[in-house]
Design goal:
Elements lengths: L7 H9 L6 H9 L3 H16 L2 E5 L1 E4 L28 H15 L3 E4 L9 H14 L4 E3 L3 H11 L3 H11 L1 E4 L9 H7 L5 H14 L3 E8 L5 H18 L2 E8 L6 H5 L8 H15 L15 H9 L4 E4 L19 H10 L3 E5 L5 E4 L2
Parallel strand pairs: 1-8, 1-9, 2-3, 3-4, 4-5, 5-6, 6-7
Antiparallel strand pairs: 9-10
């Protein structure tokens, strides 16, 4: 049980003194703390860190294949390779798919994510990255997931460290946080993730940080997890961040149940509501504070208005423009594309200053 003397005031004092919150503090914020008070504390921390500036990136998401041998229960995107809509893009197809977004819309980040495709060897990725980098030299390659990296490492009989060095030499700039979900093995079993895959995620990220490779971190909520699982997840990321400061940003995102096995097995009919989204944003800001200064709003799964609310509850990065994304639409949720001008207007509407950034969160243009 959480001590009755626990309060948000005590947590605020801890944060102001630079203390690390413990599991009980975080569980209290999830289960008992007033949402508006959480938002007020998170917003004050965000203002101290970045003022009124809210960053965003012009990017596209490249889903190069939907063939995957992991087959997570929460994923509606994967195919086994036998279905008619299974696909794998050639490197030439990838280059042509990027071209209009690079030449006409000026994207600076390419988020590459697909599936753990057992037919692909290391050369597919190194050749692909080299061609992308040669063709679009100003484009930061943000990929691959830790699951893809771990599989390629085993298949190539290379250490994760050697593989990462090879991928960077080929053009990879940073690693996205996909695959984190919730680190608890008990939760991951229900999600259909392999045993130990949470520790594997942390291990790959640590190897990357040792090499100076910057990465992102994420958490998926709103499925079968409990507050203690989320608390431990956040603290595990914070512990690694304090060692190397290799994480660029953190994004909490809510599970989309449409067309997934988990929708059937766990009886989850709807995604988390707006208050749960804002609670997770605020708690993330409070836990990470300035140790991990960038909290992303995750507008993709929640819409533009919720993206704006997330900023008021402690987020200070909008995310990206999102062109050609296919994973979320596989759940049946309509996403569409969001252009840079819409993001700028959305940020200005809530009295904040939009700042375009690159893949490594370096400012490109202050448009406010």
């Amino acid at each position: 049980m959480i001590a009755s003397s626990q309060s948000l005031d005590n947590i605020g004092r801890k944060v102001s003194n630079g203390e690390v919150l413990d599991q009980e503090d975080i569980i209290f914020m999830y289960d008992e703390a007033d949402l508006n008070m959480l938002g007020k504390l998170a917003s004050s921390l965000m203002t101290r860190i970045s003022g009124k500036k809210v960053s965003f990136v012009s990017n596209m998401i490249l889903n190069y294949t939907n063939i995957c041998n992991v087959r997570c229960n929460f994923c509606a995107f994967y195919r086994t390779g036998k279905e008619e809509d299974s696909y794998l893009l050639t490197k030439e197809q990838v280059v042509e798919r990027i071209r209009p977004f690079y030449e006409k819309l000026g994207i600076t980040q390419l988020l590459i994510q697909g599936g753990v495709n057992p037919d692909l060897d290391l050369e597919y990725y190194t050749d692909l990255f080299r061609l992308i980098h040669q063709t679009y030299p100003k484009l930061g390659i943000h990929g691959l997931s830790t699951s893809e990296i771990s599989f390629i490492s085993r298949k190539s009989r290379m250490s994760v460290r050697d593989l990462l060095e090879t991928l960077v030499e080929s053009g990879m700039e940073s690693i996205p946080g996909a695959g984190a979900e919730i680190f608890s093995d008990d939760v991951r079993k229900l999600l259909g993730r392999p045993p130990g895959s949470g520790k594997q995620w942390l291990s790959v990220m640590e190897e990357a940080h040792k090499l100076g490779i910057r990465t992102s971190a994420t958490m998926m909520f709103g499925h079968v997890e409990e507050s203690r699982h989320k608390a431990d997840h956040l603290l595990s990321i914070l512990q690694l961040q304090k060692k190397y400061h290799g994480f660029l940003s953190f994004t909490p995102w809510n599970f989309e149940p449409g067309n997934t096995k988990l929708q059937e097995t766990a009886g989850i009919k709807y995604r988390s509501g707006g208050m749960d989204v804002l609670r997770n944003i605020a708690i993330s800001r409070i836990v990470f504070n300035s140790d991990l200064p960038i909290i992303q709003s995750s507008w993709l799964t929640n819409g533009i208005q919720m993206g704006q609310m997330a900023i008021l509850f402690g987020a200070n990065d909008w995310g990206g423009t999102i062109y050609d994304e296919k994973v979320i639409p596989a759940t049946g949720k309509s996403v569409g594309n969001l252009r840079k001008e819409s993001i700028i207007n959305s940020i200005r509407q809530i009295g904040m200053i939009p700042v375009e950034r690159d893949n490594l969160y370096r400012p490109i243009d202050t448009t406010g």
